[in-house]
Amino acid sequence: MKIFSAEQIREADQFTIQHTPISSSDLMERAAGKCVSWYEDHFTPDHPVYIFCGKGNNGGDGLVMARLLQQHGYTVNTFILQHSNNPSKDHTLKLQQLTDHYPSSIHSIGDLSDFPELPANAVIIDAIFGTGMSRPVEGWLAGIIHRINDHRLQHTIVSVDLPSGMIADESSVHFPVIQAHYTLSFEFYKLAFLLPENAMLTGEVHILPIGLSPEYISNTPTRYHLTDSTIIKTIYRPRTPFANKGTYGHALLIAGSYGKIGAAVLSAKSCLRSGVGLLSCYVPQCGYDIMQISEPCAMCIVDENTHYNTHFHQGMESARYKAIGIGPGLDTQTATAKSLERLLAVWKSPMVIDADALNLLSIYPSLLQEVPKNSILTPHPKEFERLFGSSQNDIDRLELLSREAVSRHLYILLKGRYTAMACPDGSIYFNPTGNPGMATGGSGDVLTGILTGLLAQGYSSKEALLFGVWIHGYAGDLAAAEHSQEAMTAADIINGLGKAFQEGI
Prior knowledge:
Number of strands: 18
Mean pLDDT: 96
CATH superfamily of the largest domain: Ribokinase
Protein name: Bifunctional NAD(P)H-hydrate repair enzyme
CATH class of the largest domain: Alpha Beta
Pfam family, one: Carb_kinase
Strand content: 5-15%
Binding site for (6S)-NADPHX: 57-61, 130-136, 161, 263, 329, 380, 445
Oligomer: single chain
Shape: elongated
Helix content: 40-55%
Largest sheet: 11 strands, mixed
CATH topology of the largest domain: UDP-N-acetylmuramoyl-L-alanine:D-glutamate ligase
Subunit structure: Homotetramer.
Radius of gyration: 26 Å
Binding site for AMP: 415-419, 444
Number of helices: 18
CATH architecture of the largest domain: 3-Layer(aba) Sandwich
Structural class: alpha/beta
């Protein structure tokens, strides 16, 4: 799914109006009608509705909702904020229609003193500002936003299109913004919805289809995308009848150290579950028995050192591995760093770099220059900051993520609720699968195994990244459904991979 800018969304509206038999007024009716249908599924008429409307088209959506909800038996009070003497054309039309049918439900707010008293069971609908916002809300309007937020603990807040005060394509972290419980948006995710800093502002986001032009959507480029099942189905390669284990590649996982052999085991198990043909695991001597017992389907190579890996670079010049994954539980010993340096000097194919291997790159920045092109780096936010520096907000961090991916010709993911995946061509993908239950030790090790296994099977770096993060999150959702987010572990994600392949593709 494409993620369009606020300007592109307005263009999509206009293109739809110009090229399909629908007026802007009717398109507004359609959008508001979708919101009302959603609202009726979630709230009964026992809850009085308080709708706050601006003077633009977002306010127009709110006015249509006010009329339709009253037609459906809801008690509605509509408050129009008098912040402009130039309402939009459709706002004026919808206000007249509401006035014709329900004049006593309409009220005016000219300053903060006009803010109404709300009954205990009221629901607030925020239709003040939409995607046209380009600067912070100020003055008494900011006071209205703060006053609505003061009611957040006692009343449910539903924002239309996006929470008022939020800017769709920029950081709004220090601005007055409505703190919605639900956000009802149209056709596309906004970039702002996918940023961690906005999680407490958007609440649950629901994307409602309103029939915008498929031609515009198909022909308009964008750098931002949300990975969906359509994309995953184009990537996935089903097994062929005459395949053998050599068909699906030989992967090498370099992982583990004393006290952290579990990370290597988790990566090995998930790599095998990803479909790789053969797997070798390189571990220190202390991990040999554990690995052989825990995962007999994997071959085991043992380092000279007892407690951590120091010589995994040896023999790589002639190695026949299709992909290498390195980092889970690796430790950051000096000898390990030297072996990584020697490995990067001879291994020039894409690899997956995670956990302590990332930490070694941050400790020895010169090694980062030697990482093979098209490799996949998998940092969480702190690892990313150690590698590439801090950012003022999530938008700045996205830009930094993309710059590093483009300049270094790497695929870099930034773990989170909507894991961001930056590609060397400048595009950024967000992954929607997964849940907070995956914030548990070992979850990242599982992802490393999946990505390494997909690379070894011949998927390109981009394909492995998009597919691997998707299936990892989907398996996590299955695990949460079975065990709860609180009780699930990284091992449960691995156990969900089989069903994820069956249902998620």
